[in-house]
Amino acid sequence: MDFFEENIFGSSMFSEEKYEILYDSYPYVDSNTDEVYLDRTPSYVNGAHVCQNVLLECSIKRDHISNAVKSVSFKMPVDNAKLSSVFHMLPWGLIKKNRTGVGATTLEMKSRRNSIIVVPTRALAYDKFIKSHIPNTVKHASYYVGSPINGHQPRELEDYLSDDEIKYKKFIVVSDSLPNFLKRLGEECFSKYFIMVDEIDSYQYDNWYRPNMEKVIDCYFKFPYTNRCLVSATVGSFSNPMINSEPIIDIVFNSEAPRNITFYPTNNVITATSNIIQSIKDAFPTDKIVIALNSVLHGILPVIKSLSTEIQSQCGVWCGIKSKKHVEEYYIEDVNDTLDKNIIFMTCSYFVGIDISERFHLISVADVFHPYSLLSPDKLQQIAGRCRHEGGLISEQIIYSFRDSPNNNSIDYEAIRNKIIEDGETLISLNQNIANTKLLFPNLLRAFNCFSLDDFVLYSKKSYLSSSKAPLIRVTDNTLALSYFNIDNILIQIKLANELYSDERGLFHQLCIDGNNCHLDLSQKILSPIPEEIISEINSEVFHNVMVERDAIISELQQYHDLGQLKSVAMARRNSATNANGVFLDRLIELVNYVPFQDLIPLLQEYDNPVQYKQLYNAVVFWALSPNHPIRITIDSKFEVGKSYPNNYIIEVVNSIWQGILGLGLLTDKQAMSFAKRYFLSMRRKSVRKERNASPTKEYVIESLNALNLSSEPITQISSEDNIQMRVRL
């Protein structure tokens, strides 16, 4: 839509919807006539008082058609000023700060009010906490809320809250920890605290693999609109209508100095990155290098393994705790504003919020064949902004692959957004209709398998125009809702892949248009893949690391004999485990209610891939049925251990369960025998000749009345009243 700007210096107060601005008069001297006039300047913007003697240029942006306020913008009086030189505290609303390093978090930390400051990563939260140390004491003005880091032992919460020496309480909360922390504070926190959610754009990029991040927004909207703000240096468009209804505070600066960037389009980002690192080390042996690459297994590890042994020894890695095991010898936990190694690789956990006080060569890497690694111009700007040295970056390189397909300018992104939302709402509606239909027509639903809420989320993963698959919906407050951040992420991927990474010059041209000094270098365009032995070595190391971690997890868990404690510890370990062991722990938590721990562990190791685990899960469900359940009664009455039965008899019994008791439809003979072996019985085949010269018939000896051949009893039995159809996974 078109917008127009309206100067607001004509009235003493502006109040419309969620916007509120007050301003004062000040004397103005006409340089031509020396006459003194009164002019006006804002003294208050959305709850934030303006510092004394600061004159702000402030304007309203309205929708040209509806005349509704779209945003309020103000220009920083000095281009390199911090927000603390303009405001005493942050305004409420969505704050587009449009530049890194303007001190938004610092301002809220120093504001005279109780604050909850939510940041996306542990490293950023811990850094802000450490910087709040009170001189000549052992105390910190803030309180870190997140998973353990650097051996930090937090004060007791009540001790911090009752500390009269710290008048204004400041909680620095990692996004994943926010929901539980608010429960600890209690309902009064929504009226007593101001919540600031920092780096909100990172949620659009990271939510697909950290789904708890979207819960932050659920929490955010529980605070009154005057007690909340969202902040980012690079704010794009949002699919969430509630975020779009927030008042927008747009901070205006003069254009930043252009960056000097060399672009390396390539068919192989791993080899190209290795080559560029080597060339920089050859030319500048003592200089430091930072590589921004958002993939450990498919990016950072292969690059490091491609380097010489000497250069490998200079490498360090900043990454999330889930990837730590894969880069153990390079992992740096204590991240600060200096570079502990000459060569630092960092994943997206460190693209925002980290301030590096040294100069370095920056290499940013994007691989179009791994869409989650793609970098927008705003994200590239954020990464470059990590260097806070007054001299700036030594050099900046961008290495990227591309699809080598024409730029598709005909894509209607709003139509795609609407289509994704429509698809998600279809799933939500289906779930609601199933519940309603079940009440009205219970017999009808016996013919169909019903899904849990988690099943709806799992099977809502979808790709649009070659994006990565992401769930369209999520579970919140025991109901389904659209996953707006995942929808945003899909759109970002589509836009990047089809515009900036569709050919070798798309990204280059865009950053030229943005005013940078750009150079295109085609020396890395066609490269050979890295040697296969490096890939094999990495795969072997990854498998070894996963198994070492798994053995440690199992050793720890087997110490707990109380089921509740065991599950609680398993859930805690799940937050820091590698992805593979995170899945292992999810499965353990799901089945340990039924199968004793010592019996379950080898089963989880054996039935490892998704198809195998579904077989294990169903077998456990049928094994755990109570003795008076119709399915258990049927199996116990129709089969006896040690006896043999013809396959047509087994098929008939299995169909009587599947079609009759479960109402799931008639099975073919092949399906029935397969299900018998997978879910109901442990048996071995034997050949029987009932007459001389006759062909042998198929018979099976029953070894156990459960497919897993378990000799133990279920810890918990599934009641005969339980709808097994709801549990079975097809």
What is the CA-atom radius of gyration, in angstroms? 31 Å
Fraction of residues in H or I helices: 25-40%
Instruction: Output the CATH class name of the largest domain.
Output: Alpha Beta
Tally of helical runs: 26
Q: If you consult CATH, what is the topology of the largest domain?
A: Rossmann fold
What's the total count of β strands?
A: 28
Strand line-up in the sheet with most strands:
1-6-7-14-8-13-12-9-11-10
Structural class: alpha/beta
Shape: globular
Distance linking N and C termini: 48 Å
Segments where pLDDT lies below 50 for 5+ residues? Answer: 1-5
What's the structural domain tally? 5
| CATH architecture annotation of the largest domain | 3-Layer(aba) Sandwich
SSE layout and pairing:
Layout: E1 3-7, E2 13-16, E3 19-29, E4 36-45, E5 48-49, E6 57-63, E7 69-75, E8 93-96, H1 104-110, E9 115-119, H2 122-130, E10 142-145, H3 157-161, E11 170-174, H4 178-185, H5 189-192, E12 194-197, H6 201-206, H7 213-220, E13 228-232, H8 241-244, E14 248-252, E15 260-265, H9 269-283, E16 289-292, H10 296-306, H11 309-312, E17 315-318, E18 343-346, E19 361-366, H12 377-384, E20 395-400, H13 413-440, H14 442-445, H15 453-458, E21 461-462, E22 470-471, E23 473-476, E24 479-482, H16 484-500, H17 506-513, E25 517-520, H18 532-557, H19 563-574, H20 579-591, H21 597-606, H22 610-623, H23 630-638, E26 644-646, H24 647-661, H25 669-680, E27 682-688, E28 697-704, H26 724-727
Parallel strand pairs: 7-14, 8-13, 8-14, 9-11, 9-12, 10-11, 12-13, 15-20, 15-25, 16-18, 16-19, 17-18, 19-20
Antiparallel strand pairs: 1-6, 2-3, 3-4, 4-5, 6-7, 21-22, 23-24, 26-28, 27-28
Helix pairs in contact: 9-10, 10-18, 13-16, 19-20, 20-21, 24-25
